[in-house]
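Quick question: who can interpret this fold?

. . .
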Amino acid sequence: MIKIVLQKKGDNIIAFDISGHGVSQAELDSAIGDAYDLVCNTVSVLSQSIIIGMEEVLHIEPQYSIKDGYLSLSPLEGKSIELSQVLLKTFEKSLESTIKSLDISFGCKKRKEYINLIEKEV
C-alpha cells in the first residue's frame, strides 16, 4: 500500500512523506505480468514533479530523500513555503482526484488496500 502523509502548518503544506507500493511484486507478476502499477506510477510522477518544479521552475533547493518505494520532502522553511504552495496544493488536489477515481471504480474499502492520504498538522 502507498501511504502519503502531507505535513501542514495552518493552510500551508510544508513537507510530505510517501512510502510503499500500490501492489506487491507477487501481485504484479501473477495478475498483471509485464504491465506496470498505475497507482504507484501516478503517485511517482506527481510527487517527483513537485521536486522538479521546485528546483527547475522556482529555483529553490528542497531537501529530500528518494529511493525505491520512498520519497520524503523535508520541511520547507521561510520564503520556500510560500513559493511552493501552488505546486504542493496542486499535488494534494491531484492525489485527492486520483483517490476519488479509485473509490468510484473499486470502492473505498478496496482503494484503501492500495493508497491512503493522511494530513498531519505540525
